[in-house]
Amino acid sequence: MTGADRVVLYWDASAIVSALFRDRYSSEALQWAAVEGLHLCSSLAWAEVHAVVARLQREAGLPDMLAESALQTLEAGPGRLLATAPDPDWIGRLAARWPLRGADLWHLAMAVTLRRELPALRMLTFDSRLYGAALGEGLAPEQAAASSPQP
User: Along the chain (151 residues), what's the average pLDDT of each consecutive run of 10 residues?
Assistant: First the structure.
């Protein structure tokens, strides 16, 4: 894969969780994780994943060892943790266009903001509404369209 062909992928929390815990999207998430390129994870997605792991421990009895393993995998990558925020102007514009919950709107605006510097950026999500918005904004990975998220 050449530098021009390298993938630039922004992961939302749903994609990260699917890579960490077996669900119907795990296979696709793991395939994307294995792709060479720049993988990005926002501090919001990081917080959301930590919240999911803690909730699974409290409510579903996820053993501490498995929770620790999931969080170690999160920290090991392949993603780079971003400590930045989306452009506030994009939040307003995208809110008018797409019926998204707050965190999902934030992820979409973050991806759109990052795309200014990284034009090849795509967003990996398994949330059906966010996927539709990402598709509408030209951010959905082409290969993911065949297995687009279901409501």
Answer: 69 96 95 94 96 96 95 88 94 97 98 96 96 96 53 43
Q: In which domain, by residue range, is 42 found?
A: 3-140
Q: Which of 79, 91, 88, 86 is nearest to 11 (CA)?
A: 79
> Cα torsion for 96, 132, 83, 28, to the nearest 10°?
180
Q: What letter represents residue 19's amino acid?
A: A
**Residue 16's closest CA among 28, 2, 8?**
28
Q: How many domains does the chain have?
A: 1
**Rg of the Cα trace of the chain?**
15
Pair of tokens at residue 115: 């795309």
Report helix, strand or coil for 125: coil
Residue 60: CB partners within 8 Å, gap ≥ 6? none
This model's pTM is above 0.85: yes
**CATH code of 46's domain:** 3.40.50.1010
